[in-house]
Structures are given as structure tokens and as C-alpha cells.
Amino acid sequence: MYGYDHPPRAARDVREEGIPLVTFPVPSPLTGRQIGAYRFGDPSEIKRGRIGGRKAFSKAFRDRLIAYYDSRDAITGEKIDSRYLQIDHRVPYEVAGDTAHDETKVEEYMLLDASSQRAKSWSCEQCPNWQQHHDDRVCRSCFWAFPHQYTHVAGERVRRVHIEWRGDEVDVFEKLHARAEGEDTTVAALLKQLAKRLA
Questions:
Q1: Among residues 85, 72, 153, which one has the least CA distance to residue 120?
Q2: Facing residues of 89 across strands?
Q3: Whether the predicted pLDDT of 20 surpasses 60
């Protein structure tokens, strides 16, 4: 009726509008295998700030974020053409809703390119806090919200470093890559080994 041909996407859109849905198994009329079906949930489960869905950002706010963050991806720190950057809540919408939507608080948002956005989305969706607890304090100590000051990555004790080699630095990377292949390992694993010797 509404042009959807992907039920999970439709269900997510409904949930993002603040409407509780329950997923339950039913047999497929075509194959007999179990598939997911949906029904409306308890209205008391409507999450704060969620009814009506996400709020749109103004162009002026986007311009302020670009200037404030110097057109840099928050995860990699790389400066990128602003047209490739997307605005993202530091604390995921699924956890906090738009209760904190305030265009005077640029620090509550970050800029991400498509690759970083996908990586953050995937990691957050696997996190127990996203799936069950919805505690924004957990998110605020996570790498994906504050990559320069964090205690965990999606609930796990992890530390991350993003490194890019540019220009003449690529020659160094190629030497590391050749050495890693010779030792039947990866560049990342080789760098960890070298770091342990220096620590």
C-alpha cells in the first residue's frame, strides 16, 4: 500500500516514529519456514522524545558544524569535502531519541563520512546498551560517541587507532606490508608486535 517491499526497513521506520512494534515468528505461506511478523506493542513503551520521528537539521546548523569541526570526520580525524559529511547524534537516536535535539549544542553532534557512519551504525546495533538498556551514560563513555576520550567500544574493553599513510608516507606502509606478508601476518598485527617491544 505504501510502496515498501522490505518489511524490516518498514518496521524500522515505524519504530523510529516512536511506535512500539513486537516482532514474532509465523510460518511463511510460501515455504512454511518461520519468518518475522510485526504487531503494535504497548503504548506505554513509547520512548521519550521519539514520537513523530527524527527532527531535521537546518542548513545553518550544518554549516556551523562544518566550521566547528573544520570539516573533519569525527572517527578518522581526516578533513573531507563537507558534501560527504553527515550529521550524527553522538548518543544514538535509538538510545536517547531527540530529547536532546538542540541546535545550540554542537558538541552533542558529530560529522561522519559514509564509511564511518556505517561502521558506527553496525557496531552500535550489536551493543547490549542499544538492544536492551538505553542508558545514554554508557554511550557517552563509548568510542563511537567520543573517539578521543572513551573507556569502551560498544560495551567491550577495546582501544582503537586509525592510521592513514599519505603521499611519501605510503612508501613506509608498503615496507610494513611487505614485512607483514613475509611473516604471514597483517600490518595491524605487525604494528601491535612492534608496539609491545617499545612499551
A1: 153
A2: 109
A3: yes
